[in-house]
Amino acid sequence: MEGFAVFHTPEKVLYGCGSFRQAGKEAAAKGKKALIITDEVMTKLGYVAELRQLLTAEGVESVVYSGVASEPTDQYVAEALEILYSEACDVVLSLGGGSCIDTAKAIVVLEKNGGYIGDYMGGQKDCTQPRVPHIALPTTAGTGSEATDVTVITNTSTDVKMMIKHPVFMPAVAIVDPYLTQSAPPQIVAATGGDALCHAIEAYLSKKAHPMTDTLAKSAIGLIVRSLERAYHDPTDLDAKEAMCLGSLQAGMAFSNASVTLVHGMSRPIGALFHVPHGLSNAMLLPAVLEFSKTSCTKQLAEICELFFEKGNKVSDGDVSEKADAVIHRIKEMCRSLDIPDLKSWGIPEQEFQAALEKMAGDALASGSPANNPKVPTKEEIISLYQTCYQYMTV
């Protein structure tokens, strides 16, 4: 590795069963009045009320914004920011999936630095003022957003998912408790778990990877491969859920510092235009993108082969190319087991999809993520990959 690497993490990470109970104490150390960013599902499940009780017990007042109803948009950011201002909150807690966490990341920066969240894309506007402290409490095991310095917000005027990266977006505290993921339905487990697997694999294959990120990425891959299908097929398997939470956290740390690659670059436009959940579109794309990239990352894929198979499996006797192929084949099997559809099966009309190819490919390249891929694609190759993935058989 030439030069030096920089590694960013939250100031503090609490993880494991029971860590949620520390939310009140962590908030009290940061402020006196909290804004909780969440959604209606968390409210109905009682998690919001439980969190408010923990805050009250530590002398922290709280108000709630529960308007996050889809992947995060600039509209949610504007609505939540108005509450942050009007209620004079001095600490923010996000309780939910990546959408809630990303919305919170945006408002804690805008509160003092001002402007429109899109102004910060590509470093156009810098963050010169301190952020409001942000405590992230993920309720899904997938996005890893609790440990990243990235927020992804959809511009509702242009239908572009704005990927904005800056150290100031990193939460101050991440609290990762498997307890909060128990209520996630199987389809959410599959989508967010697929997202976490993409994060870990892309971080390992990224041109920006370094030894610290490789260590976390490999650990995350092993945890996710061993536990994702168990968590999907048996909601009562708490060991699997705990392993998924840790794997997601490690994958988040890895990709936040090594970046993502082509899968994420292609995934964001699908989500913005056709409203496919982010984790699901990542999983839809992953096998085909790996097949496209294989000639430039055969060695790296072979290096992680042992994480996908039990010791003694005959795959371990194969050559480098055979091991790489085995990894891709195993990922296809996982997608089938998790009932991951292709884009056509999801319900995207073919005519609309074809009409959007030019825009999606352009937006994917503009995001910068494809440049980190082991094999950097042209716009025409991205269009071809989209066409392949529209009706992609994982067998």
Short description:
The protein has 395 residues and is of the alpha/beta class.
Keywords:
395 residues, alpha/beta, Rossmann fold, Dehydroquinate synthase-like, alpha domain, 2 domains, two-stranded antiparallel ribbon, 8 strands, 52% helix
Account of the protein in words:
The chain has 395 residues and is α/β, with parallel strands linked by helices. It folds into 2 domains: 12-181, 3-Layer(aba) Sandwich (Rossmann fold), CATH 3.40.50.1970; 186-390, Dehydroquinate synthase-like - alpha domain (Dehydroquinate synthase-like, alpha domain, Up-down Bundle). It is built from 14 helices and 8 strands. It has helices spanning 23-28, 40-45, 47-57, 74-86, 98-113, 186-205, 211-233, 238-258, 262-274, 278-303, 320-337, 343-346, 350-366, 379-390; strands at 12-15, 33-37, 61-65, 91-96, 134-138, 150-155, 160-165, 173-176. The strands form 2 sheets. It has a 6-stranded parallel sheet, with helices on both faces. Strands 6-7 form a two-stranded antiparallel sheet. It is globular and about 60 Å long. The model has no long low-confidence stretch (mean pLDDT 94).
